[in-house]
From TrEMBL:
Keywords: Hydrolase, Metal-binding, Pyridine nucleotide biosynthesis
Pfam family, one: Isochorismatase
Pathway(s) it belongs to: Cofactor biosynthesis; nicotinate biosynthesis; nicotinate from nicotinamide: step 1/1
Organism: Caenispirillum bisanense
Name of protein: Nicotinamidase
Main EC class the enzyme belongs to: hydrolase
Family of this protein: Belongs to the isochorismatase family.
Domain Isochorismatase-like: residue ranges: 10-204
EC annotation from Swiss-Prot or TrEMBL: 3.5.1.19
Length: 209
């Protein structure tokens, strides 16, 4: 399979936001290391989409909302939910894109997790697995047949986005070195195995273009 981007390919840059970078409320180790790689990748694609966690205060995914401990798991009406530290609250500095991320190439910004009762890891669907973000239809209308994914975090939002891309009939390529993981016990290994089982291709930045 050629990994040279064409007019039917799109790059999805997932959640490269301050709260997921060192010093942020839900910092991913070395999260800021993906920024220059994402910037370089954007130059190779005609279609670029950025996603942005955009939670209201008191979101159902926040441990503080339930008086629980961060990284515990509870059951919500749509299924298991990891409880996260408050993060990416709308219109706060933590929700902003990393200052060094070049946003100019993006044709679309998908804000997700805005429903106070439902989390949204995927760029395509909320965690109820039924409510679309609109990205799938937008890509279909543009004639996109394959997506490349980079950003944060490999084992959650990137993983769910890649799986949903495959479920929608799109080819998907995970650019591993341009991602970083939360890596709770077993989550990264499980995510990589699940993505590969779904037909996601694993690649590196140097393979693209």
């Amino acid at each position: 399979m050629s990994l040279v981007p064409t007019a039917t390919d799109a790059l999805l840059v997932i959640d490269v936001q301050n709260d997921f970078c060192p010093g942020g409320a839900l910092a991913v180790a070395e999260g800021d290391r993906v920024v220059p790689l994402c910037n370089a990748l954007m130059e190779r694609f005609a279609t670029v989409v950025l996603t942005q966690d955009w939670h209201p205060a008191g979101h159902a995914s926040f441990a503080s909302t339930h008086g629980g401990e961060p990284f515990g798991v509870i059951e919500l009406p749509y299924g298991p939910q990891v409880l996260w530290p408050d993060h990416c609250v709308q219109d706060t500095p933590g929700a902003a894109f990393h200052r060094d991320l070049v946003t100019r190439p993006a044709q679309m910004i998908v804000r997700k997790g805005m429903n106070p009762a439902v989390d949204s890891y995927s760029a395509f669907f909320e965690n109820d697995r039924r409510t679309p973000t609109g990205l799938g239809g937008w890509l279909r209308d543009k004639g996109i047949r394959r997506v490349f994914l980079c950003g944060l975090a490999t084992d959650f939002c990137v993983n769910y986005s890649a799986q949903d891309a495959r479920a929608l009939g799109l080819d998907a390529v995970l650019i591993e070195d341009a991602c970083r993981a939360v890596d709770m016990p077993g989550t990264l290994a499980d995510a990589l195995a699940t993505m590969q089982a779904a037909g996601v291709t694993l690649a590196a930045t140097g393979d693209v273009g």
